[in-house]
Amino acid sequence: MIADRLQTALPLTRRAVLRGIGAGVVAGMTGGCAARLAMPVDPAASAVPDLVDLARFDPRLRFDIRYARTDNFMGRVLYPVARAVAQRPVAEALSRVQTRAEAAGYGLLIFDAYRPWRVTKMMWEETPPNKREFVADPRGGSRHNRGCSIDLSLHRDGVEVAMPSPYDDFTPAAYRSFAYAPAEALAASRMLEGWMVAEGFVPLANEWWHYDWAEWRRYPIMDVPLEDVTAG
Ligand SMILES: [Zn+2]
Description:
30% of the residues lie in helices and 13% in strands. It is α+β, with helices and mostly antiparallel strands. The chain has a single domain, classed as Muramoyl-pentapeptide Carboxypeptidase, domain 2 (2-Layer Sandwich), CATH 3.30.1380. The strands form 2 sheets. Strands 2, 4, 5, 6, 7 and 8 form a 6-stranded mixed beta sheet that branches. The radius of gyration is 18 Å and the shape is globular. The termini are far apart. Bound molecules: zinc ion.
């Protein structure tokens, strides 16, 4: 009861969610069915994975891999290497978006791309049920697990552009429909969206930073650790 009331009363900042309230959720789930979850296999995914290292593929791209550090919503290191990899057609499209952004005086700032399934599972298990719209259910897998999603923002001369909310903000400010952010932030988000959509990405409604490659269904859910991906 007390825990329930606390959960409603506390402001749901990322740290409160995952350091405080989240800890109880994890403890509650240990030993439950979530602990025995196996990686899902999508029988319709027939494409052969062809992951490429985005930094090598297009040196113009910039990176801020928060999951390789502790300043992320989980508050701990999730990736042993600061690396972003994606399926080749995704990388090619992203490169074209970079060209569009450069023409307008901007550049792309990548937060995350391929994410091993085990990391998605960890995120789900440690996120309270009322905040799980922001994390993928490991039973279905994430499009990040297929190397087909990109979390990104814009920079201008190396300085991150202000967006409607911080990355991985678990509040309605992350929604694309959120209208109360500063006008410049909303404009920047929509500008990025326009370029991404023009190159074949589909924006996620409740996270301004997340885009899926339109053909994500063709690629299988993967659990290869990031450090083991031998990307071309
Ligand atoms: Zn994402």
